[in-house]
Design brief:
It contains 4 helices and no strands. It is mostly helical. The longest helix has 36 residues.
Amino acid sequence: MSFYWITRLDAIVLTAGVIGSILLTIALVMFLIGNTVEEWDKENENDRKHIRATWITTFVGMFLVLVAIFTPTTEQACAIYFVDYLQKNEDARELPDKVIKSANLYFDKLIEELDKEQKEGKR
């Protein structure tokens, strides 16, 4: 189940960033409209609702932007998971050595075959 959410992280980051940016833009517009149309009157109920809505929109937008910034992408989450896995798993530690040894043997045989073909071709 956790792997499903790892594959969805890119969409979560993008959605949080877009919605957060839109909310911050709306909050800015609300603030500018409130300041240019009339002075804030903290006694007036409508102005207090406007101020409260502006603050709530600003905080939700900032929260979503921070979620977008600090949530890892799918590639980063996989790297985090597999680095931890490789550090804890003994078999995984031995794997790179085996791969290198296998590659060395393969290339040694390939070089021998190429040398043999060159010698036969020159004679």
